[in-house]
Amino acid sequence: MAKSTRVAALQVEAEVGNIDANLGMCSDLAERAVREGAQWIVLPEFFSTGVANRPELAQNAPDADGAPTRLLRDLARTHGVHVGGSSLVRDTDGHVRNAFFLAGPDGDILGRHDKDMPTMWESSLYIGGGDPGRIRAGENMIGTAMCWELLRTQTAERLAGQVDLVLSGSGWWSIPAWPPRPLTRWLEQRNNARAVEAPSVFATYCGAPVVHAAHSGPLNCPMPLVGLAYGGHYQGGASVTAADGTVLALRRRDEGPGIAVADIELVRSAPRPLPDRFWLQKRGVLPALAWAYQNPYGRAQYARTRGHQTHRPAGALR
User: Fold this and answer.
1) Which of 20, 75, 132, 283 is the most exposed place for a label (fewest CB within 10 A)?
2) How far, in Å, CA of 84 to CA of 282, rounded?
3) Which pLDDT does position 305 carry in this prediction?
4) Cα–Cα distance for residue pair 203/192, rounded to 1 Å
5) Measuring CA to CA, which residue among 277, 285, 272, 265 is closest to residue 194?
6) Angstrom distance (rounded) from CA 19 to CA 60
7) How far apart are CA 75 and CA 84, in angstroms?
C-alpha cells in the first residue's frame, strides 16, 4: 500500500503588484501549512503580484532568481518540504514569463514550468512556454498546470499517466454584474462553478491527485480596448483532489485567505480517455469572447512593448 502524504494548497488575498506584502502573506500561510504537517505546499499562480490588466506587473517583474523564487527556496529549506508556485519573471533574454518553480527540501530548485498560453489580458504581460511541465522530485514525477491549462486537452495529454501528483494554481477572475444583470449573474454562477470544478475534472484526465492553490478577494483594473473598468473578484478556491476526482479539501474563495489540507497517495491511476477537442470543458460565452479578442490584442501589445521593459537585464539577447 502506498504511503500517504499530507499536502496543502494556499489561498491568498493578493494586493495587486505589492510584492513585499504578498510574499509576507504567502510565507505566513506556508508556515501554517507546515504546522499542520504538510510535506508538499503549493502557492497560487501569480503568488507574488496577483494578476490584472496592469502593465506595471510586467514592468516590475523580477529576475528568475529574484525574491519570489528565493521565498520558495527558503521555505523549502527551512522546513524540509517541497514548495512550488508561479510568478512573473523576466529572463535573461529580456522576455517575461509566468514561471512555476518547484523547490525541494534542501532548497534547490528541482525544475521549472512556463505556462503555455497566457489567458486573455495576461497576453500583454508575458509570453508562453513549450516545456512538458514535468519535474522529477526524487522517486516521483510531478506535473504542473496553471489556471486555464487545466481546461486544455494538450495539458492533460502531456501529463496523463506520466505523473504521480499535479501541482496547480490559478488567478481566475469573475464575470462582473454588467447589464443585463440576470444574464451576467447566471453566466457568473457557471463561471464560478467551472473554476471550482476544473482541478477535480482535470485529475480524472491525468490520473493523478491535484493540489490547487488560488486567490481570493476583489480585483479591479481597466478592460482592454473597450473603455470600461473591470470590477470583480477572484474565482474558485484552493483544493486538494484525489486522482479519481474526489475533492478531499476545499477552501472557497468567499472564505478568504487560508489553506486546504489533505492526505493523498502518490500513486498513478488510469486516466480518463481524452476528448478529441482543444478544450476539456466549455469555457462559457463571455470568457470565449474575451479569449478571442483579448489574446491577439495582448500579444500585439506585448510585441510592441516587450512586456513594458524599461531596462535590459545583464546578459540579455539583442
Assistant:
1) 20
2) 28
3) 78
4) 18
5) 285
6) 10
7) 10
* Among candidate residues 255, 234, 238, the one with its CA nearest the CA of residue 247: 238
Count CA atoms closer than 13 A to 247's CA, side-chain side.
16
How far, rounded to the nearest angstrom, does the alpha carbon of residue 150 sit from its chain's CA centroid? 9
> Which grid coordinates are listed for 301?
501589445
User: How do residues 90-124 score in pLDDT, each as one tens digit?
Assistant: 999 999 999 999 999 999 999 999 999 999 999 99
Give the burial class of 129: count Cβ atoms within 10 A of its Cβ; 0-12 exposed, 13-18 middle, 19 or more buried. Answer: middle
Checking if the pLDDT of 317 tops 50, the result is no
What residue spans of 121-271 are helical by DSSP H? 153-159, 181-206
Alpha helices, H only, 87-180: 153-159
20, three cell numbers: 513585499
pTM exceeds cut of 0.90: yes
Buried b (16+ CB within 10 A) or exposed e, 8-20: bbbbbbbebbebe
List all residues 6 or more positions away from 122 whose beta carbon is below 8 Å from its beta carbon. 51, 98, 298
Output the pLDDT for position 227. Answer: 74
Looking at the chain, list the stretches that DSSP marks H as alpha helix, in order from N- to C-terminal side: 19-35, 56-59, 67-79, 153-159, 181-206, 285-305
Size (the chain), residues? 318
CB 172 within 8 A of CB 130: no
Q: What is the mean pLDDT of the chain?
A: 93
Distance in angstroms (rounded) separating the CA atoms of residues 277 and 57: 33
Residue 199 makes CB contacts below 8 A (sequence gap 6+) with 150, 168, 210, 212, 239, 241
φ, ψ of residue 73 in degrees (nearest 5)? -65, -45
> pLDDT value at position 278?
96
Site of grid cell 523549502? 76
Joined together, the cell numbers standing for residue 247 give 475533492
pLDDT value for 315:
38
List, for residues 193-225, the tens digit of each pLDDT value. Answer: 999 999 999 999 999 999 999 999 999 999 988
The Cβ-side half-sphere exposure at 304, using a 13 Å CA radius, reads 9
